[in-house]
Every structure is written in C-alpha cells, then in structure tokens.
Amino acid sequence: MKLRTLENIPFNGKTVLLRTDFNVPLQNGVVQDQTRLRESLPTIQFLLEKGAKVVIATHLGRPKGQVLEELRLNAVATAL
What we know:
The chain is of the alpha+beta class. It is 26% helix and 18% strand. The strands form two sheets. It has a two-stranded parallel sheet with strand order 1-4. Strands 2-3 form a two-stranded antiparallel ribbon. A hairpin with a 2-residue loop joins strand 2 and strand 3 (30-31).
C-alpha cells in the first residue's frame, strides 16, 4: 500500500478548502494575539508553493444567532 502524505498529493491547479480556527481576541477591530494566524502560515505557504488555490474557512462566532459587526473577519484577514 502506498502511503499518502501531503508531499505526494498533486495540489497544482487544485482549490483546497482549509478549515482553520481563527477565533482570535479582537479589541477595537484589531487582532490582539496573532498566534493562531502565525501557526497556520506554514500550511498555507506549503499549499501555495505546491500551486494550490487556498480558500480558508473560519468564523469568530455568532452569539445567540446574532450577526455582529465587531465579529466580522476583516481584522483577521488584514492581520493574516
């Protein structure tokens, strides 16, 4: 049986959906702790170097089903 690893998957020209946990602390629309963002960078860079288009799926929350402007991902995207 051939072992499948990320190194031998042909990502070139493929779109990869990357589910991440970017629940980061925000204050006044600015990310206060970028640890989770930094930790995801090697995976994102690996996929990009292999020629993949990367789509990142994450969220910050929706307390009691409410959409709150302060929980939009604009600050996370800027920090990333």
